[in-house]
Specification:
Elements: H1 19-32, H2 45-52, H3 56-68, E1 72-75, E2 79-82, H4 84-111, H5 116-129
Helix pairs in contact: 1-3, 2-3
Length: 132
């Protein structure tokens, strides 16, 4: 779906979680990944609702949740924008989660009897095989 710089996965009643939570998660994912231009306004509530085929109320609730979380801020008549502090917080949280995952993988490798060199080789192989 073309929603400006936002790329959403499936937003669907069949997916787990309420629709507004799916939108919140999608926006946070795109923001944390750096795929949203911070200088551009987010899509209007009506535009995003039409693009995602959901109600205006659903998008409004998602934007309110994002604002409450400090990810976005709204300016009357101008739209919704990314909040720099919220963007940095999301990136920091994702980096911390990645570090925790790497630490767990290292620990699992060592418990399996792998040397640090073998763990590094495995990591480099998996990194080269993984696409974003």
């Amino acid at each position: 779906m073309n929603t400006g710089s936002l790329r959403f996965g499936p937003i669907s009643p069949a997916a787990s979680g309420p629709l507004y939570e799916q939108i919140v998660a999608a926006v946070k994912r795109e923001v944390a990944a750096g795929r949203v231009d911070p200088s551009e306004p987010l899509p209007s509530i009506r535009t995003l609702a039409a693009d995602l085929l959901v109600s205006v109320i659903t998008v409004k609730r998602a934007y309110e949740e994002l604002e409450r979380d400090g990810v976005i801020f709204k300016r009357q008549g101008l739209g919704a924008f990314l909040a720099p502090a919220g963007v940095q917080r999301l990136r920091d949280e994702n980096a911390r989660a990645a570090r925790d995952g790497l630490k767990a993988a290292i620990e699992a490798g060592r418990k399996a009897g792998l040397s640090d060199a073998e763990i590094l080789d495995l990591f480099q192989h998996e990194l080269s095989e993984t696409t974003t």
